[in-house]
Specification:
The structure is a single chain. By secondary structure, the protein is mainly beta. The chain has one domain: Electron Transport, Fmn-binding Protein, Chain A (Pnp Oxidase, Chain A, Roll), CATH 2.30.110.10. Helices cover 14% and strands 43% of the residues. It is built from three helices and nine strands, in the order αββββαβαββββ. A seven-stranded antiparallel beta sheet has the order 2-1-5-8-9-4-3, with helices on both faces. It is globular and about 50 Å long.
Length: 156
């Protein structure tokens, strides 16, 4: 395959979108994540990729937990809120009616949430891949998830 076909081919891999949240001590944050996937049946596990150096990485590493809030097919408000990103000392949840959970933060406008306990972290190029066992979860009946395709698979 010619090298210029790689971005287009990668971009055709569908993914959902989730707001990943974590907390450690008095710090908490969230980010928009598009590389989330079920990873095992027994125990139930999922994987998520996080770009190296993001503020959430340190919180996940400290607490060994996080929550993936799965977005609906109309993710506009959450894309707008979390799409800009947050610095380490910014309140990622300002203005949102969130629910605290021992593993992270449950946000509004999600159709499902998965609380994960990290079982492994592996380097994957410019990202880290976390494998997490699902320790708690919730879901909304009848809601459809957002499905994301990219024009260029080499950038967000």
């Amino acid at each position: 395959m010619p090298a210029d076909s790689i971005p287009a081919a990668l971009g055709r891999i569908p993914s959902g979108c989730a707001i990943l949240t974590a907390k450690a001590g008095n710090k908490r944050t969230g980010l928009l994540a598009s590389w989330l996937q079920q990873a095992a049946f027994e125990p139930p596990m999922f994987s998520v990729a996080v770009r190296a150096g993001r503020p959430i990485e340190a919180l996940i590493d400290q607490s060994a937990h996080f929550i993936a809030n799965v977005l609906s097919e109309t993710p506009g408000p959450m894309f707008k809120h979390f799409g800009k990103g947050f610095g380490p000392d910014e309140d990622a949840f300002a203005g949102l009616n969130v629910q605290e959970h021992p593993a992270g933060i449950i946000i509004p406008d999600q159709i499902a949430w998965l609380a994960g306990k990290v079982r492994a972290k592996h380097p994957a190029g410019d990202h880290f891949l976390y494998f997490s066992e699902i320790i708690d979860a919730g879901a909304t009946d009848g809601a459809k998830p957002y499905v994301h395709l990219r024009k260029n698979g080499l950038s967000y």
